[in-house]
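Page 47, continued from p. 46.
Same chain as before, 392 aa.
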Amino acid sequence: MLDLAEELSRWAEEGRDFAVATVVSVGGSAPRGPGAALAVDSEGTVIGSVSGGCVEGAVYDLCRQALADGETVLERFGYSDEDAFAVGLTCGGVIDVLVTPVGAQAPLFRAALSAAARNEPTALARVARGPAHLLGRALLVRPDGSYEGGLGGEAGLDRTAAAEASALLETGRTGTVELSEDGTHCPGGLSLLVEASVPPPRMLVFGAVDFAAALVRAGKFLGYHVTVCDARPIFATRARFPEADDIVVDWPHRYLRRTDTDRRTVLCVLTHDAKFDIPLLEEALRMPVAYVGAMGSRRTHADRHRRLREAGLSERELARLRSPIGLDLGARTPEETALSIAAEIVASRRGGTGLPLTDSETPIHRDGSREAGFGGPVTVTGVTGPAPRAAG
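Result:
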C-alpha cells in the first residue's frame, strides 16, 4: 500500500473510497516482490501493479468486489499447467495478494499514507495470513517505536509486532514476519506483512559535467534523491541541472564529510581530475555506502589506484571502487554513458551479472538478498496459504 502512498494519500484527501491489492509473499519467479501494490477507486480508476501485467485483470476484479462487499481477502495466483494461456503467472511463480477495502475516512491507513507521502519513516504491519477475523488488521509504527491501531490478537501481539516492524523500518526493508496470536514467534499462527517506507536513497554526483546532467535524469528515473556537487560555481548551476534535487558548490571531499549518507547511498565521481578525485575517494571508499564509481580511462584508473595506495587505502577498500564506472555497453554519448552507470548500479543493487539474459542461466528475478543493503524490499520465499488460481 505504501508503494502508492503519494497518489493514495491524495485519493483519501479527496474523499474517495478505494481498495488496495498488495503482494504479501512470492514463490519462484515473479515480476514484483512483497509490498508491490495495485489500487482501484470506486469509479474504477486503477493505479499501480502487482505482477507486471500477468494477473492485473483478476486483481482489479477482486478490488472491485472488495469495494462492493467491504471484505478483506487473501488470494493466491500461480501458473496453470492445464491452460498455459490462462491469465496467470506464466513465468512459473506464485504470489499471494492481500486485497483490502479502504474507506476515505479510515484514520490509520490515511495516517500511514500521509506520512509515507511526506517521506517520513513509517511502517505499516498488516495481518496477511491467519484467522479470517484478523485478516487485514493493521498497526502503524513510528521510528521511535510508538504505534497505533491493533491486530486484534492477545495482549502481547501488538507489542511484538511493533518491535518487529521497528526493526524492519530501521533498515528500510519490507518483508513478512511469522508470529502466533499471543505474540510469540511460534510458526503457523499469523503472517504479518510489514511495509517500510523511508526517504528515497541518495545519489551523489560529483563533477558538474555534461555526463552528470544525463546521470541526474537517470538517477531521478530510478527513484534517487540526486545531489550534484562541484567546487566550480560557474558550472554547478540550476540552469545546467534543472532536475537535480540539490546543487552544492563545495570541494567534493569536504561536502562528503559533512553530508548524510547511509548503506543505500551511491556515489558517482565524474570529476576526472586527480585534485578532486583522490581526496574524495579516500573518504568514499572508507564509508559504508552502497556503491562508489569513478569515471576515467583505464590509464586514469591505474594512476588513481596508485595514488590511493600511496594515500594508505587497503586492497579491500580499493576493491570497492567501480572504475572505469559503468557496464560495457559501448556507450559514447552522455545519455548512453548514464545508462551504463545506472545499469551497473542496478546490477550491484540486485545482484545481477550484467550479462545478456539470453546468455545467462541465473534466475531472472533474484531472491532480494542484495537489495537489503540498499534498504529495499526483501523477497520472501516459501509461501503458504490458499491454493493457487489462474485468473481468467
